[in-house]
Write a structure and sequence with these properties.
Layout (H helix, E strand, L loop, with lengths): L14 E5 L3 E2 L4 E5 L3 E4 L9 E6 L5 E4 L2 E3 L7 H4 L8 E4 L5 E7 L4 E4 L1
Parallel strand pairs: 1-3, 2-4, 3-5, 4-6, 7-10
Antiparallel strand pairs: 5-9, 6-8, 9-10
Length: about 110
């Protein structure tokens, strides 16, 4: 297999976007959200594909994909309004909130880490 999986160290080559409208990811990306937006995680991601989201305003950001939460301390239900712990949509509405998601092919899911 010639594919070399990306790691968190590969964020130097991530594509940065400032979002003011809905967006579907398509690779490793760093997203700065400045409006109400819905983010759909890449439905066909590569192993270790990473998405980092920063909410610059007090707007609402919904991130949808096959997400599993493994760090409950970072994704507090009350603070981030997670509909169902470990569910498929994360909702953020607190200014300066961040999310770090990585797709792991062996698990077939996005991990909120």
């Amino acid at each position: 297999m010639s594919y070399v999986p990306q790691s968190r160290a590969d964020l130097a080559t991530a594509t940065p976007y400032t979002l003011t409208s809905d967006h579907t990811t398509s690779g490793t990306e760093i997203l700065r959200c400045a409006a109400d937006v819905d983010i759909i995680l890449n439905p066909a991601p590569k192993d270790r594909e990473t998405v980092v989201m920063y909410l610059a305003t007090a707007n609402t950001v919904n991130i949808t994909g096959d997400i599993r939460i493994y760090s409950a301390a970072l994704y507090n239900i009350a603070q981030f309004n997670i509909d169902e712990f470990g569910g498929s949509t994360l909702t953020f509405n607190t200014q300066h909130a961040t999310a770090h998601l990585m797709y792991v092919r062996d698990f077939e899911e996005w991990l909120a880490i």
